[in-house]
Structure formats: C-alpha cells, structure tokens
TrEMBL record:
GO terms for molecular function: beta-phosphoglucomutase activity; magnesium ion binding. It is an enzyme of class 5 (isomerase). Substrate binds at D8, L9, D10, W24, K75, S113, A114, S115, K116, N117, K144. Pfam families: Hydrolase (PF00702). Binds 2 magnesium ions per subunit. The keyword ATP-binding does not apply. The keyword Protease does not apply. Mg(2+) binds at D8, D10, E168, D169. It comes from Maribacter luteus. It catalyses: beta-D-glucose 1-phosphate = beta-D-glucose 6-phosphate. This is Beta-phosphoglucomutase. Its EC number is 5.4.2.6.
Amino acid sequence: KKKGFIFDLDGVIVDTAKYHYLAWKKLANELGFEFTEEQNEMFKGVSRKRCLEILLDIGGIEATQKEFDTWMIEKNEDYLEYIEKMDASEILPDVPKVLEYLKAKKVPIALGSASKNAKPILEKVGLLPYFDNIVDGNSVSKAKPDPEVFLIAADKLGVMPKDCFVFEDAVAGIQAANNAEMTSIGIGDSDILAEADYNFKDFTEIDLDFIKKLLQLK
Ligand code: BG6
Ligand code: MG
C-alpha cells in the first residue's frame, strides 16, 4: 500500500523553538515579566495567536485588540530576524539522511506545521525540494491537536491517513497525528511524548532499517 511521511518543522527539522523562545521572552520582558524555557514547552506546536494569549495570561496582562495585534507583529518581526540568518547548518542531525532515503524510495513527503513561516525556513536551510506538499499555518484553520493539518497533508499526498507516518516534537502534534489515525513518531523526550506510537530522542537514533520496516507494514 502507498505510504506517506509527514514532518513537523519546528523542533523536528530545525531547532527554531529557541528563536521562538527568545522572541517571546523579549516581548515578556518588555511587558515587565519573566518567561522561562520551561514555560516555552507549552508553546510548541501552538499557533502564534494562542501563544500570545498564553503569554499574556502568564504575565497577568489584559490587552486591547490593538495591543494584541501590535505584539503579534512585534514578536514575529523579532523572530524573522533570527530566521533571516538561518542556513543548512541548522538542520537537525540526520534529518537529511531520512529525507534522502524516502526520496530514493519515491515515498511522498509533506510538511505539516502550524507555522506561517514554514516555507521561507525550508528555503533558507535548503530542504524545500524534498517536500511534495507543504501544509502550514497559512492553510489550516484548526490548530493541533485537531488533526486537520495532517489530514490535509495526507489528502494532498494522495495517501490514506492510516498509511501516513508523522514525525512530531510537540504533545499537541502527537495528539493531532493520533486523532488523524496516523502512526505518530515522537522526536524528543519520551516521557513528555508518551502518547506517541514510537519514540526517539532525535533522528540520530533512527536507523534506516526502522524506516524500511515502516514502509513494509501492510
Ligand atoms: C509551531 C511552533 O511550529 O509554529 C510554535 O512549534 C509556533 O511554537 C507556531 O508558535 C506558529 O509559528 P509562526 O512562525 O507562524 O509564528
Ligand atoms: Mg514542532
């Protein structure tokens, strides 16, 4: 049966979580409160708008609509400054190894990300040509853990959801994949991503025999 692979972007392909964190932290500090890396865990896989809502909750700040919109823009402009400087050296270890293997086997590959900056980032690091389809924050209306982003990706790849494999680093992302009835592969802390079907610390732990085995599942 035809199989498809779907990759999350932030935290799976590139370590942009640190840039998101720095940009949110700057805004928090400007507004007069601290924002820790631990709190940043809650932001993974979550839309920009929702992140700002959570951030303002943390700071106990009630914003007018105008302030809210301004801060959304400000955070993104700071984030884009980091993105601007990205290159292939920021691709997480062994990600290209898996992409190459899938390409060689002619397995369709999609991106399934909440980010509205997904395409420029893939371009910057030179991985855009590997992706047959990009489904990102510009094309979905329901955020992870809603399965929408992955279901659209499967549809575009022409693969049944149950024959799709999803790489994710966020709890909401693993839940989205599970809600789509896809096979979820957690990248990161297996205690945090306990709901995943498979767990790996990072791609260096994934051996190509594992991918081969997935492709051979009935
Ligand atoms: C997700 C990140 O991939 O994209 C979140 O994990 C981020 O932290 C979300 O908030 C939206 O990203 P962007 O680039 O549209 O602000
Ligand atoms: Mg992610």
